């Protein structure tokens, strides 16, 4: 059973209205610009209270650290809310970093994207004979930017560990060509990202015969 009950921000009784800070009346969250600044210039907000941002502790820590450096250390670095690795720790894990396919289409246009995907078969599933077409991997590439990877998604064992490693590569400007040039570790789940050659638009079969 998966419970996704959500939560509201407790902002209605702390005096924000007194100084004119706007909130989203639906959920109590605070809209900010790309520097975590509210509509009141001297008031900033970070963490789960932000409207439309990820509710993740490491994101809040990073945003707070960067905000302090901008305010008091002369820095100009802003928090990246797009290329954030995250995982759903269900029995079969799901991990992602970057844009979901739907958001990527909204941002860049479907004609400017190439989506590669594949089913894969973890080695540890061969002995118990588990279904070899349950795990799934996908990357979304921006054709207008040297096929840069703007979204990575994986459903399979240890998806969190896999996603964390690839997140650093995405931050460094990972491209499809670089993935193709990377030698995979066989047999691992992460290896699938180095061998993808079927695009979603081709409609070709992505089922696998073995690990």
TrEMBL record:
Where the record annotates domain Pyridine nucleotide-disulphide oxidoreductase dimerisation, the positions are 84-196
GO cellular component labels: cytosol; mitochondrion
Q: Which GO terms describe its biological process?
A: cell redox homeostasis; cellular response to oxidative stress; glutathione metabolic process
Positions of the FAD/NAD(P)-binding domain: 1-64
Gene Ontology molecular function terms on file: flavin adenine dinucleotide binding; glutathione-disulfide reductase (NADPH) activity
Pfam families referenced in this protein's UniProt entry, alphabetically: Pyr_redox_2, Pyr_redox_dim
SUPFAM superfamilies attached to this UniProt entry: FAD/NAD(P)-binding domain, FAD/NAD-linked reductases, dimerisation (C-terminal) domain
Please give the InterPro entries that the UniProt record associates with this protein.
FAD/NAD-bd_sf, FAD/NAD-binding_dom, FAD/NAD-linked_Rdtase_dimer_sf, GSHR/TRXR-like, Pyr_nucl-diS_OxRdtase_dimer
Keyword line? Disulfide bond, FAD, Flavoprotein, NADP, Oxidoreductase, Redox-active center
What highest taxon heads this organism's lineage?
Eukaryota
Q: Which cofactor does it need?
A: FAD
In which family does this protein belong, per the annotation?
Belongs to the class-I pyridine nucleotide-disulfide oxidoreductase family.
Q: Which PANTHER family match?
A: GLUTATHIONE REDUCTASE (PTHR42737), THIOREDOXIN-DISULFIDE REDUCTASE (PTHR42737:SF6)
Protein name, please? TRXR3 reductase
Organism, scientific name = Gymnorhina tibicen
**Gene name for this UniProt entry:** Txnrd3
């Amino acid at each position: 059973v998966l419970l996704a009950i959500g939560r509201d921000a407790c902002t209605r009784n702390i005096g924000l209205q007194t100084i004119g800070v706007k909130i989203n009346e639906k959920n109590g969250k605070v809209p900010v610009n790309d520097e975590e600044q509210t509509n009141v210039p001297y008031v900033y907000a970070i963490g789960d209270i932000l409207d439309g941002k990820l509710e993740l502790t490491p994101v809040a820590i990073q945003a707070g650290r960067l905000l302090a450096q901008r305010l008091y250390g002369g820095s100009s670095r802003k928090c990246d809310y797009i290329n954030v690795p995250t995982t759903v720790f269900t029995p079969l894990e799901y991990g992602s970093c970057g844009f979901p396919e739907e958001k990527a289409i909204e941002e860049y246009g479907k004609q400017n994207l190439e989506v590669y995907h594949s089913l894969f078969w973890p080695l540890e599933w061969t002995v118990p004979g588990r279904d070899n077409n349950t795990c799934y991997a996908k990357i979304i590439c921006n054709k207008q930017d040297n096929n840069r990877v703007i979204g990575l998604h994986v459903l399979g064992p240890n998806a969190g560990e896999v996603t964390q490693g690839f997140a650093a590569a995405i931050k460094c400007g990972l491209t499809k060509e670089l993935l193709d040039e990377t030698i995979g570790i066989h047999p691992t789940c992460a290896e699938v990202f180095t061998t993808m050659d079927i695009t979603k638009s081709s409609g070709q079969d992505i089922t696998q015969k073995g690990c």
